[in-house]
Task: inverse folding
């Protein structure tokens, strides 16, 4: 530290002075360009330009390290004194994202000027990402040559992160995320992207059947005057109708009949299966304090039928809430341009992969619920994904290394070349 | 007792656990006798075991993993924190740390007593995934490790230690951070792999993701700082304390941030 004052800026060994100056300059330049360019949204060029860009970047990185690894700049960039300010600079941007709502148009002039509401597509974000990649690339090579197995954990963590940053940045423009509305028994080959642009797909999908499996509905007690749910010790009283009898609030409820799909007929409900049929139940409610017993029907209603509440007394009523979906799935037939024809079912958390596309079940006509004839699918094409996954698995292995080996001894400096 | 709202029984389980842990902390702090310490360890284990029984019955009762609501995650946190306190006592014999951990675990039980839970059996389809349990368990375990390390940080910030007395605690803080950080990384990456299966993309900058990433970055700063400046204890401890504050924002604070409306991660209270 004694020679720190006499050392010129940029000379070896670097201190936080150099590291912080570079990170601050990157942010400053980034925000300046962003403001000067009038808040434009940045996109990295698509294939093949991103691939060329990536190869050139990697080439330059390896080339510079190979020829100038003893140069104070390369040595400095490979040190913690450069890494920490870079991490902090990146963290600063992510903190901004943590406070400013993303991907919505903001009316705030400052947010608009610096592009704070879509930070990942702005100059400062892209520049600091590039800087982090340079640092990660240099430290990876520094620890790789000469090879030492004890650096394996270091390599996995740093190179894994490098690969994730590298492939997500370059792959962002090649990724397509499209939404497709499928109506039962109709063939669809078009989908729309986030901006609403219609895209013709190299495959078509015919929705054969959309299916929802629902939980049994829940019942609750509401105040007749306020229509608010009655609470007991601060807890909303909600009970699922999956048992024949239970206590709810101060009442005991016995379910005499449950119809998963029904229609009203006179004063009662009967089993029915047609669009708009709703669950209903006949219940007997006893009040243990005054031994009164009342019985009647409740129904959650649907987009066709109105719900039916059961008035227990002048203060309270028993109501059935709409059933919540347990799972929903679409039986589809996929025809690809390459001549494949596949019959399959997609479900939430169970997508289907075909010809580089992944098909996800995302939504349906929620107003119609189980009678929906519309299924909303998401189609994703992400050719850079394998590279991202390799990065993720490297980092996972690196995490296991951290777990097993713990903190390096002697401040970890002993294996640094 | 079928159909009984399990949370109505929670005060009984929580009080037993709290009594066990209070007694354990008292024994740990009051005497140096070996038998007393063993009794204390036994009592602290009993409290944790009792809570695990509650979690098991709750799990069976609601027919889904109890990891959905904030109150449910606090329950796991109390279990892990008390467990980690006990294991670290058995390993390093720091009685103050196990007492702090038990204290923090009790705080989480008391929060749960003051904010009773709704009794909800339903689990939205996106959460019905084999990733759900590992993602949450790994995260809560990481939080508990990092919570324990922040206790060390606070202690060292307020009771100024000497060069000699800080050596053990700071080594332990490092061990906890390395363990916690590796779990934090796994939790984050599990989440990314799950998101790809459920929502079509591995990272969408959902506010919870953003704050989880910020938390990860702060612990990354701690690790790099300790790596390069092994003798700057005080600053390292300050970084560790701030990191835990960020972690708490990620865990609870996100629910109240205006930038976080409509997030899948905003737990129902």
Result:
């Amino acid at each position: 530290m004694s020679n720190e004052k006499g050392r010129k800026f940029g000379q070896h060994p670097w201190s936080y002075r150099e590291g912080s100056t570079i990170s601050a300059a990157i942010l400053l330049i980034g925000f300046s360009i962003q403001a000067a360019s009038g808040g434009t949204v940045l996109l990295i060029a698509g294939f093949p330009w991103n691939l060329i860009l990536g190869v050139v970047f990697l080439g330059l990185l390896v080339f510079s390290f190979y020829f100038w690894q003893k140069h104070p700049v390369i040595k400095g960039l490979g040190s913690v004194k450069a890494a920490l300010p870079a991490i902090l600079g990146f963290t600063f941007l992510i903190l901004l994202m943590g406070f400013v709502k993303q991907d919505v148009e903001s009316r705030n002039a400052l947010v608009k000027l610096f592009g704070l509401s879509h930070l990942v597509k702005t100059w400062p974000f892209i520049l600091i990402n590039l800087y982090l990649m340079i640092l990660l690339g240099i430290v990876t090579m520094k620890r790789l040559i000469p090879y030492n197995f004890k650096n394996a954990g270091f390599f996995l963590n740093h190179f894994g992160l490098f690969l994730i940053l590298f492939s997500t940045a370059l792959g962002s423009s090649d990724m397509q995320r499209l939404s497709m509305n499928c109506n039962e028994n109709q063939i669809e080959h078009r989908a729309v992207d986030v901006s609403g642009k219609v895209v013709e797909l190299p495959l078509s999908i015919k929705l054969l059947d959309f299916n929802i499996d629902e939980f049994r509905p829940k019942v609750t007690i509401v105040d007749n005057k306020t229509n608010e749910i009655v609470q007991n010790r601060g807890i909303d009283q909600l009970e699922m109708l999956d048992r024949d009898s239970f206590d709810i609030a101060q009442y005991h409820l016995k379910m005499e009949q449950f119809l998963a799909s029904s229609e009203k007929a006179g004063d009662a409900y009967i089993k029915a299966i047609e669009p708009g049929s709703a669950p209903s139940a006949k219940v007997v409610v006893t009040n243990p304090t005054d031994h009164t017993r009342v019985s009647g029907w409740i129904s959650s209603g649907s987009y066709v039928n109105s719900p039916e509440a059961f008035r227990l007394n002048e203060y309270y009523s028993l109501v059935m809430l709409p059933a919540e979906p347990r799972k929903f799935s679409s039986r589809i037939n996929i025809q690809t341009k390459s001549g494949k024809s596949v019959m399959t079912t997609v479900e939430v958390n169970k997508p289907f992969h075909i010809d580089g596309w992944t098909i996800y079940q995302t939504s349906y006509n929620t107003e119609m619920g189980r009678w929906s004839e519309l299924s909303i699918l998401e189609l994703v094409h992400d050719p850079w994904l394998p590279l991202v996954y390799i990065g993720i698995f490297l980092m996972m292995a690196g995490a296991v290394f951290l777990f097993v080996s713990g903190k390096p001894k002697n401040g970890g400096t002993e294996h640094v070349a | 007792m079928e159909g009984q709202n399990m949370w109505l029984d929670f005060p009984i389980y929580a009080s037993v656990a709290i009594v066990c842990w209070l007694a354990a902390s008292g024994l740990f702090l009051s005497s140096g006798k070996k038998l007393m310490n063993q009794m204390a360890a036994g009592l602290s284990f009993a409290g944790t075991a009792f809570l695990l029984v509650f979690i098991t019955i709750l799990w069976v009762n609601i027919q889904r993993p109890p990891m959905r609501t904030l109150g449910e995650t606090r329950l796991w946190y109390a279990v892990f924190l008390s467990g980690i306190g006990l294991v670290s006592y058995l390993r390093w014999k720091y009685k103050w740390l196990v007492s702090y951990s038990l204290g923090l675990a009790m705080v989480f039980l008391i929060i749960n007593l003051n904010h009773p839970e709704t009794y909800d059996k339903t689990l939205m389809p996106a959460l019905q995934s084999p990733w759900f349990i590992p993602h949450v368990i790994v995260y809560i375990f990481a939080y508990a490790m990092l919570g324990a390390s922040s206790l060390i940080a606070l202690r060292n910030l307020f009771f100024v230690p000497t060069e000699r007395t800080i050596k053990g605690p700071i080594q332990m803080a490092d061990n906890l951070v390395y363990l916690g950080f590796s779990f934090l990384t796994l939790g984050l990456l599990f989440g990314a792999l799950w998101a790809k299966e459920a929502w079509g993309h591995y990272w969408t900058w959902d506010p919870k993701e953003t704050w989880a990433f910020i938390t990860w970055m702060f612990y990354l700063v701690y690790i790099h700082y300790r790596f390069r400046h092994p003798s700057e204890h005080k600053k390292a401890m300050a970084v560790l304390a701030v990191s835990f504050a960020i972690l708490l924002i990620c865990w609870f604070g996100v629910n109240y941030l205006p930038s976080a409306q409509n997030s899948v991660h905003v737990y129902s209270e």
User: Anything to note?
Assistant: Residues 205 and 334 of chain A are 5 Å apart (CA to CA).
